[in-house]
Design a protein that fits this description.
The complex is a heterodimer of chains A (428) and B (466).
Chain A: E1 3-9, H1 10-31, H2 39-42, E2 45-49, E3 58-59, E4 67-70, E5 72-76, H3 80-87, E6 99-101, H4 110-134, E7 139-147, H5 152-167, E8 172-179, H6 189-203, E9 206-211, H7 212-228, H8 256-274, H9 283-290, E10 300-304, H10 316-319, E11 349-353, H11 358-374, H12 379-383, H13 390-411
Parallel strand pairs in A: 1-5, 1-7, 5-6, 7-8, 8-9
Antiparallel strand pairs in A: 2-3, 2-4, 10-11
Chain B: H1 4-7, E1 18-24, H2 25-42, H3 51-61, E2 62-63, E3 72-73, E4 75-79, H4 82-95, E5 105-107, H5 116-140, E6 145-153, H6 158-173, E7 179-185, H7 195-209, E8 212-217, H8 218-228, H9 236-251, H10 267-275, E9 283-289, H11 294-298, H12 304-317, E10 353-362, H13 385-388, E11 389-394, E12 403-411, H14 415-430, H15 435-439, H16 445-463
Parallel strand pairs in B: 1-4, 1-6, 4-5, 6-7, 7-8, 8-9, 10-11
Antiparallel strand pairs in B: 2-3, 9-12, 10-12
């Protein structure tokens, strides 16, 4: 079996990451009644004997669970979020050596995160990641979690991507990126997002874009249903999917419910790698089957049930007529079956789609960027930073434009009659 | 073209020969285990088998190993991730009747990601030495080595990619040995999006190295399970058991000559000699009747005339199973010149054969009349029917069936499925979709084109049979 390492960067990244660790522990606790360290747990955790005398924790590969340590790297240029984590019930799951923090933050500036901190912390980050990788028997994947709109997650997070590509070329890079909503209170979020997009397009194997606006809509809908009385019974409040009963904080913070949804997405994505099933799917099979062109690796995700007891036994054949597949991939389905459901549910369904509809998000982002950039608003904050030039902005915008154009070209094939290409003719 | 003499490996007439099974990837390992289970069970003395049947079957597939009480399979298990192999080893052990060797398997930790190029270009060379070492050890334990059966699927990355590479290595290392590849074709509406690429890449490469490709299609076997065997929730275990039964019906001891007393000693050699007389034609398909649930079997009786009639029509009409056979499909009347079949007139689109091998097992088998398979109209014009048909028989019953008839056919019957695979792969290739995943590991666009060309040639060759 293989292992994965979670790299959480910035405030959003760490908050979501923290929710993820809480959920994954709950899930394993639900399944692993005997407290034995098995390969499923090994995917994201080491089993450590903290009493060892040689200074470094010894990894225990089998037997009873002694002390689980998350295969995680936590990075933030401010201390607040990580400190809170270290004071909460998850503190023992993290090794202090896995944390990299600074005090002053990135000021919502991609350039500060990417160029300044990137340069400053490169060696230290590499060191931590190398050690985490060394603890893995067969490291398959890095999961990066961050937001696009700020400075640390966006800038330093994407700096990490190219670093990982250079240093660990054979390990997959899956990125969960939270995109800012239109009324995001960070004015420069379009700049940060577009600058980050270029890095994602060039250095990530697979990106799961999550729009904050969508998360807000979902959470609002859940609250609506919970308060409406009529459909309240349809909601399984104890399920991990919407449970705000975070073990980490006593008070529900505003982003908790939203972060929970993202954490659940990651949980479901990795379930097939962690647990057995009749049709296992490794993460490298996701990239192989869902990414037909290297730059078009943005996968739209949907998860059910989120707030209803929807019947998830919909065979894929029934979904087919309502979906328009590209002519050369009429049966473009990749299926995986995992036998362990999420806590509190009997079934769940996660769908990942490589769908041209993502271009709507990108187009929107580009428009917001252009609006700001036309007036060169706030640019000087970025150009201040060593290694940052105006060309960085234009290159990033061009990268996004050509990405949108690639999706447009594929969309243009919609509605055309499906004909087979003329085959090679053989002289007989 | 090859003459029969050059194909035949020199082998003593008496003395059983042994085969080495290579189980490659998940599918190959699962089917291999079912096959071994089946032949081991079928050969057991308590079923009233003649001693010689048991002895030959055992020698063919098993050997002894110090420290193990039960027969040990002459098999090498290879996979790029550990779960399937450990299940397979455990399943064999559980039978209590046989097991795999203690040092017969090789696996890694991370699979091939459904990527043929990963299996062929990366895993193949990387693990070549270790795998061939296991193979050599197995071959050395054969007193009379009769060839390889390499089992794999076409859809994934390990069986198809690594399997193809290892087959090439076998050819280099054992230039005079027989190599039969048993291939499982995936469901049409597959579970792997790039399966058609993987299939084209595999078939084109294997065609140059393997002696013959014996093919099973998941869609066909699935229908057999549902329509003939009445299985409700069909699992891969059900599918694999049917495939194992069909393979066993050909590979278990049987008389290859018109002689009552002597079992043939060289199963692979005899099979290839009967069916593959021209290097352009290597695709073999296998049909076996009857196949039914145990319950139905209780109330059924079979006659050889009925079995022969059905099997013959299945061959002509390209019906892969004994249900829904098109009885309208007819051969042109004798003397009618062989013309190319117009697609508009379906009655003329019968399946033309190059060679057929009938394997009959059971009561009164020597009374079975197989002349209806000797009609010249069944065969392509340049192959005389007398040479084209081989019949093997034994009165020993096979696996619960009082009478069992199999036909291994080198004919046009795989043409349509092959054509479908190529069409889908070609459409995808025209858009260059997923190609970067293969280029990443060393397969270029040129390589793809070469492979398409090879497979198109195979389709054209079979088309031209008539």
């Amino acid at each position: 079996m293989t292992q994965s390492v979670l790299v959480q960067v910035g405030q959003c990244g760490n908050q979501v990451g923290c929710r993820f660790w809480d959920l994954v522990l709950r899930e394993h606790a639900n399944v692993n009644k005997k407290g034995i360290y098995d390969e499923a747990l090994g995917n994201f955790f080491r089993n450590v004997d903290t009493r060892s005398t040689n200074g470094d924790d010894t990894n225990l590969h089998k037997g009873k669970i002694r002390s689980l340590k998350a295969r995680a790297v936590l990075i933030d240029m401010e201390e607040g979020v990580v400190n809170e984590l270290l004071q909460g019930p998850l503190r023992d799951v993290f090794d202090s050596k896995q944390l990299i923090t600074d005090v002053s933050g990135s000021g919502n500036n991609w350039a500060v995160g990417n160029r300044q901190y990137g340069c400053q912390y490169r060696d230290r980050i590499l060191d931590v990641i190398r050690k985490t990788a060394e603890h893995c028997d067969c490291l398959q994947c890095f999961f990066l979690i961050h937001s696009m709109g700020g400075g640390t997650g966006s800038g330093l997070g994407t700096f990490l991507l190219s670093l990982l590509e250079d240093e660990f070329p054979e390990v997959y890079r899956f990125v969960t990126s939270v995109y800012p909503s239109a009324d995001d209170d960070v004015i420069t979020s379009p700049y940060n997002s577009v600058l980050a997009m270029k890095e994602l397009t060039e250095h990530a194997d697979c990106v799961l874009p999550i729009e904050n606006q969508s998360l807000i809509d979902i959470v609002n809908k859940i609250n609506q249903m919970a308060n409406s009385g009529k459909s309240a019974s349809a909601i399984k409040l104890q399920s991990t999917l919407i449970s705000g009963q975070s073990k980490v904080k006593r008070q529900e913070k505003p982003f908790d419910a939203m972060n929970n949804i993202v954490a659940n997405l990651l949980l479901n994505l990795t379930s097939s790698a962690r647990f057995e099933g009749s049709l296992n799917m490794d993460l490298n099979e996701i990239t192989m089957n869902l990414v037909p062109y290297p730059r078009l690796h943005y996968l739209v995700s949907s998860l059910t049930p989120l707030y209803t007891l929807a019947d998830v036994n919909i065979p894929t054949r029934r979904l087919k007529p309502s979906l328009q597949f590209i002519p050369w991939n009429q049966e473009g389905w990749k299926t995986s079956l995992c036998s362990v459901p999420p806590v509190g549910h009997t079934h769940s369904l996660l769908a990942l789609a490589n769908n041209t509809c993502v271009k709507a998000t990108f187009t929107d982002l580009k428009d917001r960027f252009v609006k700001l950039y036309k007036k060169k608003a706030h640019i000087h904050h970025y150009l201040h930073v060593d290694g940052m030039e105006q060309s960085c902005f234009t290159e990033a915008k061009n990268s996004l434009s050509s990405l949108i154009e690639e999706y447009n070209q594929l969309d243009a094939t919609k509605g055309l009659p499906v004909t087979n290409m003329p085959r090679l003719s053989i002289a007989t | 073209g090859l003459t029969r003499e050059s194909v035949r490996q020199s082998a003593p007439r008496s003395g059983a020969m042994s085969m080495v099974l290579l189980q490659l990837g998940q599918c190959g390992n699962q089917i291999g285990q079912e096959l071994l289970e089946l032949v081991n069970t079928d050969g057991r003395n308590d079923l009233g088998r003649p001693d010689s049947y048991r002895a030959i079957s055992l020698e063919r597939f098993f050997r002894q190993e110090a420290g193990t009480d039960v027969p040990v399979a002459r098999a090498v298990l290879v996979d790029m991730e550990p779960k399937v192999i450990s299940h397979t080893l455990a399943k064999a052990m559980k039978s209590g009747q046989w097991s795999y060797g203690n040092h017969s398997h090789f696996c890694q930790k991370q699979g091939s990601g459904n990527n043929w190029a990963n299996g062929f270009c990366i895993h193949g060379p990387r693990h070549e030495e270790a795998v061939l070492d296991l193979v050599q050890r197995e071959v050395e334990q054969c007193e009379r080595f009769g060839g390889f059966i390499a089992m794999m699927s076409l859809a994934g990355g390990t069986g198809s990619g690594l399997g193809t590479y290892i087959t090439q290595c076998l050819r280099d290392m054992y230039p005079n040995s027989f190599i039969l590849n048993q291939l499982t074709w995936p469901y049409g509406t597959g579970e792997v999006i790039v399966q058609d690429y993987n299939a084209v890449l595999t078939l084109s490469h294997l065609y140059k190295t393997s002696d013959a490709l014996l093919i099973h299609e998941n869609d066909t076997v699935h229908k057999i399970c549902s329509q003939l065997m009445n299985i409700k929730q069909i699992s891969f275990t059900d599918i694999n058991k049917v495939i194992a039964h069909q393979l066993g019906s050909v590979l278990q001891p049987v008389c290859t000559r018109w002689s009552i007393s002597e079992y043939g000693s060289n199963p692979l050699g005899d099979l290839l000699e009967s069916l593959v007389t021209h290097p352009e034609y290597k695709l073999l398909s296998l049909m076996n009747i009857p196949l039914m649930s145990d319950k139905s079997l209780q109330f059924s009786t079979f006659t050889w005339p009925a079995l022969m009639k059905n099997l013959r029509q299945m061959l002509i009409a390209n019906a892969k199973m004994e249900a829904g056979i098109d009885w309208q499909m007819k051969l042109p009347p004798a003397g009618h010149p062989s013309v190319s079949k117009p697609f508009s007139d379906r009655k003329l689109c019968f399946n033309t054969s190059l060679a057929n091998l009938l394997v009959l097992r059971g009561k009164e088998v020597f009374q079975a009349d197989t002349d209806s398979f000797k009609e010249q109209a069944l065969y392509t014009s340049w192959m005389p029917a007398d040479s084209a048909l081989s019949v093997w028989r034994t009165s020993t019953t096979f696996n619960k069936y009082e009478k069992s008839a199999s036909i291994v056919s080198n004919s046009q019957c795989l043409q349509r499925s092959l054509d479908r695979i190529v069409t889908k792969a070609w459409d995808m290739f025209a858009s260059r979709a997923y190609v970067h995943q293969y280029m990443k590991h060393g397969i270029s666009e040129e390589d793809f084109l070469d492979c398409f060309t090879t497979v198109e040639q195979v389709i054209a060759s079979y088309s031209s049979l008539g």
